[in-house]
Amino acid sequence: MGRECVQFSNTQDYQMAHALATTDGKTAMMYAGETPWHGLGTKLDEPATSREAITAAGLDYNVELKPIYTGDGTLIPQRKAVVRDDSRDVLGVVGNSYQPVQNHQSFGFLDSIVADGQLRYHTAGALGKGEKIWMLAKLPGEIRIKDSEDVTEQFLLLSNSHDGSSALRVFFTPIRVVCANTLGLAERRGRGQGVSVVHKGDLAAKVGEAQKILGLAAKFYDSVEERINHLANHYPSREQLTVYFERLYPDSPDSKNKRAENVRSELFRLFEEGRGQDIPETKLTTWAAFNAVTEFVDHHRTTRGKTDRDRASSRLESAWFGSGAALKARAWDEALDLAV
Length: 340
Fold this sequence. Notes:
This protein is an alpha+beta fold. It has helices spanning 50-56, 103-111, 203-207, 212-231, 238-248, 259-273, 286-300, 308-321, 323-338; strands spanning 6-8, 22-23, 26-27, 29-32, 42-44, 63-70, 75-84, 90-95, 120-127, 132-144, 151-161, 168-176, 181-182, 194-197. Residues 8-17 and 186-191 have low confidence and may be disordered.
């Protein structure tokens, strides 16, 4: 055809995967410090600069837009394929108005948020064949609950897709240090947790708004600190806890299915014995009940996969972006209702 293109025998030839990507046989992920709960990726001794993180996480590739032809050579109008420039893998099919945001631009977006250029990345990686990427960077400051050893650090989690499935998004992501749980504290109805940049229009102008995120993050974390301390001063009864966990995991209409009952039993165990639940100032509080849910999602929830790696990567994807993240957001809302 005289030029590089993508030829599909069927427009459904492309299907997205959710496992962690591999680059040159290595898991496309980096992390700094202690090995995380999922045990995957390239270990770095210290949090990384954007350049270091891109290389260690296998994100040093660009994407290109290519025309699509059917098997008989007919051009498919109004559609283009998103192709990796190194592996030539097709990452997705998008419309003509789609504008890619390269991985280095995503890192640059976060780098520009902190004026002194000292933002450091604790983890980064890619899913599937590289169609979805993320990076996690720590902001200055922390939330110390009731002046105790229970500390929550303030992070920004950026995710971006190369398949048209989602915008570039920056989430404000608190992480409880004692258990490394990602808390997923969305404001009610999803408002106030972050910002999105759609892959259309003047992307440069939108990226130029990055520094406004720092002010939004400060407001978000001020609100979160107040609410966490409120939860940490509320001591629910056993009956209230039962209702709380039942709202999150109600019984199945099938009376023979004991899964929800078993999950609730595990949540009660984590409420009393989970990581960080022995801190005197927050023990047996509604804050502890919420963290029983986050620990369950991040560390214990059953996931699908043929290998340990597949199961671990599925758990990560769910906990940060999928059904696990949604469950944690519901648990946060229900905890706030419980502590009224």
